């Protein structure tokens, strides 16, 4: 029945800051950007390696939600990387801090966490 994940929707608190983070820091490509006047809302469709992946929304006065990795609900969004050290270095050169590298006890793979501008936990997972 299910074929794949179609997209991940993220509601941000500061649209220009989050747009810059996802497009300049994480280097996702813009597919389309739409301003919906009736909702005073932006919708930014983003791609990773040519695949549609994230819808970034802005809504006025959107309520805050707990988002640490151990809070109930969506735990985090993970990105697959080839070399975690290189990826971490690239984030650090762009002013993004990451946690120390951890080792997944089940797979032996390296991973780390960092946050988007709203504190959404993001993960790099070496594949």
UniProtKB/TrEMBL annotation:
Domain VOC: 4-127
Alphabetized UniProt keyword annotations: Metal-binding
InterPro entries: Fosfomycin_Res_Enzymes, Glyas_Bleomycin-R_OHBP_Dase, Glyas_Fos-R_dOase_dom, VOC_core, YwkD-like_dom
rRNA-binding in keyword set: no
Gene3D superfamilies: 2,3-Dihydroxybiphenyl 1,2-Dioxygenase, domain 1
Top-level taxon of origin: Bacteria
Gene Ontology molecular function: any one: metal ion binding
SUPFAM superfamilies registered for this protein in UniProt: Glyoxalase/Bleomycin resistance protein/Dihydroxybiphenyl dioxygenase
NCBIfam families per record: PRK11478.1 (NF008551)
PANTHER family (alphabetical): FOSFOMYCIN RESISTANCE PROTEIN FOSX, LYASE, PUTATIVE-RELATED-RELATED
Name of the protein in its database record: VOC family protein
Species this protein is from: Zunongwangia pacifica
Lineage of producing organism: Bacteria, Pseudomonadati, Bacteroidota, Flavobacteriia, Flavobacteriales
